[in-house]
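Model it.
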Amino acid sequence: MAEKPVVILIEDTPSLSMLYEQYLSDEDVDVRVAETGAKGLELIRQHPPAVLLLDIELPDMNGLEILRYMKSEQHPGAVVVITAHGSVNVAVEAMRAGAYDFIVKPFNANRLRVTVNNALERHKLSQLVETIQAGARSGYEGFIGRSLAMQAVYRIIDSASKSKATVFITGESGTGKEVCAQAIHKQSERKNGPFVAINCGAIPRELMESEIFGHKKGAFTGAVADRDGAASQAHQGTLFLDEIGEMPMDLQTKLLRFIQTGTFQKVGGSRLEKVDVRFVCATNRDVLAEVERGNFREDLYYRLHVIPIAMPPLRDRDEDVLEIAQSYLEEYAREEERQFIGFAPDVQAMIQAYSWPGNVRELQNIIRNVVVLNDGKRVTSDMLPAPLSRIVPEQGREIPQPTTSPMLPQPGFSRNSGSFHATPPPVPPADSRLATPATNSSDGKPKPLWQIEKEAIEAAIAQCGGNIPKAAEMLEIAPSTIYRKKASWEKQEKSATPVFTDSPWPR
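Modeled.
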């Protein structure tokens, strides 16, 4: 039988600790109580908690010291701060120190139960992420990157390669669709057979049938000898049809029959030939939209679309960008006999901030350009070609290394447009992630807590250039929480009496 998750309550008032224990008596948790900070720390070391309910004002120490200890020791448990001193400054400081939630005395049983259950769910998710990251691969069959998006791709390739089912790869240009197809072939039982790639968008329409199925001598002008097409060449191997969305409609009918029967006729031939081929297709088009427009056969689409793999764009692989850039820099430096070993900090910021509309191929080309035209130990901003050279990173921001978490987009930068606003938002203080909002209004009266919370979240959104998901990541909350609260604020501002949510701080 699985052990119950441990919930540690550090509360110096015996009557309150008994009350809180009673609130949680029907929950499937193991509640342990400490009256002082010292006893609480001892409990944490002996029984690492899934959730820590922490009073701020303790007789022997400030509760924030315990919170900082949890963070420094990298305890995975979620910390919920309890205090009767409902100052937003305390709340902001607690959230910065790593608290998951903030609850103000007095509160009822339902409020505590909901908060603890949410914290337990957060703990489970963090453990799952740690498990995934512990087994994360930094590279795979030609790919570079340890991001969660790429880990998902690696796992699908592992499973798909063991099957004979057709794989349908989608993704923007430059995301590595052919690398994915090659990885499937290399991991399959056909790895010793041929891998034949044919680009349906690069071959003239009148020659495409011959390229795929081959032709007989005299079949058309210039056919001076029999020739095997890609279908014959890929026998007992993999046939990769890139840009399948570009295939003419009349040839789609013949391809469908080939996939269904494994047989085909060469152009100008009369004999059916049979081959054993595994099909992998790729496109950067929305093929379903092409089906609706009548440009792609619906039956062929469903015949091909058996195992879909969506290649993530580089802008969704933030933690991989510098690692990929470093790999290409080292490779090209060796080829061109240059001295480059890394990137200057401001160049790292530029690489992270740019939206990379051309994805990995664009990154590859820019690094090649830099290495061929320059030399030195580190790549500096004056070596960068346009459009990367036009990005002006924020000064003073710490630049993460390739294996760390991705940095936030620079103020005023739009990932979609790849450009900066003319006037970037104000830069927050260097020693804080988020400036603490003023707690008093112009007349000296304390502001409502919802309004201070609103200012703090809006400051984060401004710092992230309007990117709500990044602001949510910065505040360690879900993007849906920000959207929900924005809707709530609109209602509050239209009424004289603010409508408070069930929590004074976003979860």
